[in-house]
Amino acid sequence: MKYVFAIMFGLFFVSANAQEINKKLEDQIKHKQIMLNECSREGLVEFPEFKASYDANYENYKVDSASVPQLTKLMKDKKIKVVLGTWCGDSKFQVPNFLKVTDAIKVDEKHVSFVAVDGAKKAENGLIDGLDIQRVPTFIITDKKGKEIGRIIEHPKKSLELDLIDILSAKK
What we know:
With about 170 residues, this protein is of the alpha+beta class. The chain has helices at about 1-15, 40-45, 50-60, 70-75, 90-105, 160-170, and strands at about 25, 35-40, 80-85, 110-115, 140, 150-155. Helix content is about 40%, strand content about 20%. Strands 1-2-4-3-5-6 form a six-stranded mixed β-sheet. The longest helix has 16 residues, at about 1-15.
């Protein structure tokens, strides 16, 4: 009986601390439905406000195929946190393009995480505390230990592919 109680208590404890993925709410600044906090790729691309432009932008983006072999090698053991706003025009444009690049270089989905912010560029539960998010989207690239290597803020300087290559091949 103690064993069953411990398992039940353990499950309750885990679920009590689990964060809601793909949370939707009314944003007080944007006055529209947004996603907030951690999101899955599926939840994000199916969210009506985001999907309206996602499909066309993903479809129309042409990945620089010459960069694919180098990026594939450079992205090994790297992770990317994407901080975005489902309400933000730049996020609606750049995130689909970014996902097309990560699909082309076959980045494992567990190496890409998404955090949606509100109109004040905030998330709950300390999800982006210390990340100094000023503009969205912000793509934060980290090494396997979680140390930030670099970031692309709002839009790339050259292209997503070339900016990623510059970040990943920079000597620190």
